[in-house]
């Protein structure tokens, strides 16, 4: 039994490495986003149930504003680590032109986070099942089951999974008691504020945005605000050609 478990672990870890190599090669072929139109979204077969999604209207995002990031990181006890090697980020901003290439003429920074894919390569690569897709579309992490193999990091084509190389608690200046702290040797990332959703609250980044530039809702509900925006606007996704089906969209 132990031999079989070990073989399965190695098999999944190898799949994660290969997926990561493929994703890395894809990142070299163009911008980080691809254009999707409202017509393309409308052509997707209807899905039932709940699938949370997020949309950023970057036209309304104030230049230099980081309130969404600050709120996210404070709410979830994300450690403030200066070194690039050990940096932990649930949410961050990247140069739009560098990410979008010819699709974006602006150098304004745009928010980036876990895409909570409908077909998450990170979950497929995880040998312990500690990273998984919930029935509501959120890709979650069970910190207690994570063994720190980092297969999910290798397989994520967006680079949105962080690893705690050191004790993150030592880098928390003002921890909140509303969300658990992590420990050295585990991965972490955005969780779409699943801890707040169960209390009937919106994600912290949505509440913190002073311009209402972030929309959040059920992608499978045609009457939701996010669906109305998707069907009336031309939007972008990060590398949908990879087949991961991201749940995060952008209006540029």
From TrEMBL:
UniProt protein name: 4Fe-4S dicluster domain-containing protein
Domain 4Fe-4S ferredoxin-type: 105-136, 137-166
Keywords: 4Fe-4S, Iron, Iron-sulfur, Metal-binding
Keyword Coiled coil appears in the UniProt entry: no
SUPFAM superfamilies, alphabetized: 4Fe-4S ferredoxins (SSF54862)
UniProt-listed InterPro entries: 4Fe4S_Fe-S-bd, 4Fe4S_Fe_S_CS, DsrO-like, ET_IronSulfur_Cluster-Binding, TAT_signal
Organism of provenance: Chlorobium phaeovibrioides
Aminoacyl-tRNA synthetase listed as a keyword: no
């Amino acid at each position: 039994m132990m031999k079989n478990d070990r073989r399965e672990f190695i098999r999944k870890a190898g799949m994660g490495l290969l997926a990561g190599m493929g994703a890395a090669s894809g990142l070299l072929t163009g911008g980080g986003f691809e254009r999707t139109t409202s017509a393309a979204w409308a052509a997707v077969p209807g899905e039932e149930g709940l699938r949370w999604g997020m949309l950023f209207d970057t036209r309304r995002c104030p230049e230099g504003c980081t309130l969404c990031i600050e709120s996210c990181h404070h709410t979830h006890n994300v450690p403030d680590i200066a070194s690039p090697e050990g940096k932990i980020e649930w949410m961050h901003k990247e140069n739009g032109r560098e990410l979008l290439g010819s699709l974006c003429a602006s150098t304004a920074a745009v928010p980036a986070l876990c895409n909570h894919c409908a077909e998450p390569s990170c979950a497929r690569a995880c040998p312990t099942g500690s990273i998984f897709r919930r029935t509501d579309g959120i890709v979650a992490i069970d910190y207690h089951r994570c063994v720190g193999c980092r297969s999910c990091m290798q397989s994520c084509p967006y680079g949105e999974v962080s690893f705690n190389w050191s004790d993150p608690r030592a880098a928390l200046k003002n921890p909140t008691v509303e969300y658990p702290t992590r420990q050295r040797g585990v991965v972490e990332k955005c969780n779409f504020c699943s801890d707040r959703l169960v209390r009937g609250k919106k994600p912290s980044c949505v509440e913190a945005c002073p311009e209402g530039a972030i929309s959040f809702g059920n992608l499978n509900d045609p009457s939701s605000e996010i669906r109305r925006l998707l069907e009336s606007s031309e939007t972008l996704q990060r590398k949908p050609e990879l087949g991961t089906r991201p749940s995060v969209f952008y209006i540029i």
